[in-house]
Write a structure and sequence with these properties.
The protein has 318 residues and is of the alpha/beta class. It has two domains: 5-242, TIM Barrel (Alpha-Beta Barrel), CATH 3.20.20; 249-317, Bacteriocin As-48, Chain A (Up-down Bundle). Helices cover 45% and strands 13% of the residues. Strands 1-2-3-4-5-6-7-8 form an eight-stranded parallel beta barrel, surrounded by seven helices. The longest helix is centred in the last third of the chain and has 17 residues, at 249-265. It starts with a strand and ends with a helix. The structure holds flavin mononucleotide (FMN). Flavin mononucleotide (FMN) binds next to strand 2 and helix 9.
Amino acid sequence: MKLNRIILAPMEGVLDYNVRKILTQINQFDYCVTEFVRVTHHKLSNRTFYRLCPELYHDGKTASGTPVRVQILGQSPEWMAENAVKAIDLGSYGIDINFGCPAKTVVGSHGGAYLLQYPEQIFNIVKQTRLAIGATAKLSAKIRLGWSDKSYCLDIAKAIEQAGANEIVIHGRTKTDGYQADKIDWQTIGKIKQKLNIPVIANGEIFSVKDAQNCLIQSQSQDIMLGRGILTLPNLANMIRFNDAELQWQQILEILINYATTTIEEVKPLYHSARIKQWLAYLKSHYFQAAQVLQNIRTLKTQQHIADSLKLQQTTLS
Ligand SMILES: Cc1cc2nc3c(=O)[nH]c(=O)nc-3n(C[C@H](O)[C@H](O)[C@H](O)COP(=O)(O)O)c2cc1C
């Protein structure tokens, strides 16, 4: 199957401004999606959007020029629409709507994956948002295959198409499947794709070039979205797209040092030292060296100390 686009997934608490900046410098992504912003019953402030997506200060693009799309999550069609307009006015590269988040607090307040049980409500949210942002702004919706079974998945996808979305991202698992690797179902994404006229972006469990090829074949999609896989193998998108070799551990260390030191210099850091540990935890499943580094920095609390420890590692290797 021919590959068209590769999109960087939204990952709350992980893929923030700084990580998007780094990953879009290393890889050629077609666009990124922000972490979600929760919409309740009011208009969010400009500050909220800028904090979520500092790229809005720069034409809605990362430093390397990759467009960034704001993701919104909520249950009220009116307020979702209002806030979508605001994000577009501030320069977001379209809007993505989250219908897949399984977090207890989110589904408890009837947002995210909870709505997979109610295709009509999904239709209303997408429709109102489309009407509010106008015909030309990009609008996507991100779903899972269902809540606990997949019987509504086509209804949900059709509702999204009929409501006027330009494209749909499908994470090939149900909400109750969580992140279980063996539950990934790219074939059902393919069945949905056959019945739709808008592009379908296949997502879930792509951790290697081989996984990407399998996903493209089984989902019959030309577009894929990478989430945890890109954190495990930070140049995975270019490995898939250009057949690049994977980065060496020294290069990964360089990236991590850059991550730690860049954020130290920022006026308003969005960064916590926990995040670098979190990234190392992802890297560990591919680069054995990450386990040792994680052990070395485990008790360190400040970014400066972490950066120093990483630099020491680098010196030892060279
Ligand atoms: C820590 C974490 C945070 C996530 N945050 C979001 C989010 O904010 N919005 C969203 O639509 N999906 C979110 N997701 C789901 C991912 O975008 C993606 O659909 C999922 O991880 C499957 O893709 P993968 O197997 O490539 O990681 C998150 C996933 C993880 C693991």
